[in-house]
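User: Predict NAD(P)-binding protein's structure from this.
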Amino acid sequence: MSSVRPLIVIAGVGNGLGTGGATARLFAQVGYRVALIARGADKLKNVADELSATGAEVVAFPVEAYGYQDMTNAFAAIKAHQWPSAGATELRVALYNAGVSVRKPFLENTEKDLRTVTDTNFNGAFAFSRQAIQEFLKNELDDKGKRGTLLFTGATGSLRGNITTSAFSAGKFAMRSLSQSLNKEFGPQNIHVAHAVIDGAILTDFHLKRFGESLRDNVDGRLDPASIATGYLYLVNQDRSAWTWELDLRPAHEKW
Ligand SMILES: NC(=O)c1ccc[n+]([C@@H]2O[C@H](COP(=O)([O-])OP(=O)(O)OC[C@H]3O[C@@H](n4cnc5c(N)ncnc54)[C@H](OP(=O)(O)O)[C@@H]3O)[C@@H](O)[C@H]2O)c1
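Assistant:
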């Protein structure tokens, strides 16, 4: 990649303390420029400012939602962005991390719930993938023999439906099958597409509220976002002679 700086685009950043934020932090540390796409301009700016304060080159691209047009517009803005430091940029990694946790008995799901899930997990993921792959196709092969790596954050619900997960699982299943099809279609063009099944509770504010502060110390019972990010860097560093489509990450003492 010589003097060209690699860029990672991440869609779905939340408050910066989950998987999206941890991945941004790790890739910035290893030399990537970082473009963040998420809802809520103020919240996103806080995350970007925190990362910039560590010396990272980070830009925030707020969106209204994770719809098809939102993702397409965000990529157009990313491509037009002038990075302050010298050197060209190539998109080398794209992570679709957005996920909406609709958990309700089937009969309580509303049309709005369904629309949010469909937009976030399918329409948005589809448009994000399309934009990322179009950029990857312009790249020369890197030192791993790849043009780029497209990652998806999945969940237990990507493999297993359950009570209260009819909408959530349907969305995650759809995203998983999208990633599998893209892996098959674009592997021959040396684009690596991988899906991570995150099978357990991630240490986030949401789960600290749900399970209490003891979750923080229960290192074998929950997943650390920084450790998931390490898994993503591992996928990106795989060469094309042996790459993973699906990675399954779970805490050591899981009981499910
Ligand atoms: N938390 C867990 O225990 C767990 C377990 C397995 C898998 N996952 C998956 O891991 C990914 C990252 O989650 P994380 O917990 O680590 O937190 P995170 O990285 O902070 O990301 C949370 C994501 O959820 C999005 N989101 C929340 N409510 C939403 C809504 N109503 N509509 C659209 N998007 C919404 C956030 O969007 P904004 O950035 O726009 O706010 C953000 O993209 C998600 O795809 C999630 O499904 C999570």
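Residues 111-136 form the longest helix (26 residues).
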